[in-house]
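TICKET: design request
STATUS: open
ATTACHED STRUCTURE:
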């Protein structure tokens, strides 16, 4: 379940994904499969090749892409999330949930 974001943030992320841009969206998220993680960052892009190439630079594998639904994305948690957001200059995405 996603929470802690505004509808306009979600809509802006969806629009950017649909436009073929690499788009980031961090929100609170609780899943028993990932103990100790309280946030997830979804990095999406409708251009699958572009998304795959983006992920490769951070060691993410194409098979890790979530292709269900209309918004292809990688889910970033924990150390990967912090490392990648830091490298992208987007720590404000995570810091607001600390």
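STATUS: resolved
RESOLUTION: sequence designed for all positions
ATTACHED SEQUENCE:
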């Amino acid at each position: 379940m996603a929470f802690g974001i505004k509808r306009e943030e979600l809509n802006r992320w969806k629009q950017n994904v649909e436009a073929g841009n690499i788009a980031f969206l961090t929100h609170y998220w609780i899943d028993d499969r990932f103990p100790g993680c309280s946030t997830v960052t979804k990095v999406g892009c409708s251009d699958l090749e572009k998304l795959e190439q983006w992920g490769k630079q951070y060691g993410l594998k194409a098979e890790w892409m979530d292709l269900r639904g209309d918004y292809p994305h990688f889910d970033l948690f924990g150390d990967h999330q912090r490392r990648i957001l830091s490298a992208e200059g987007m720590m404000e995405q995570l810091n607001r949930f600390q």
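CLOSING REMARK: Residues 52 and 62 are 6 Å apart (CA to CA). Residues 7-18 form the longest helix (12 residues).
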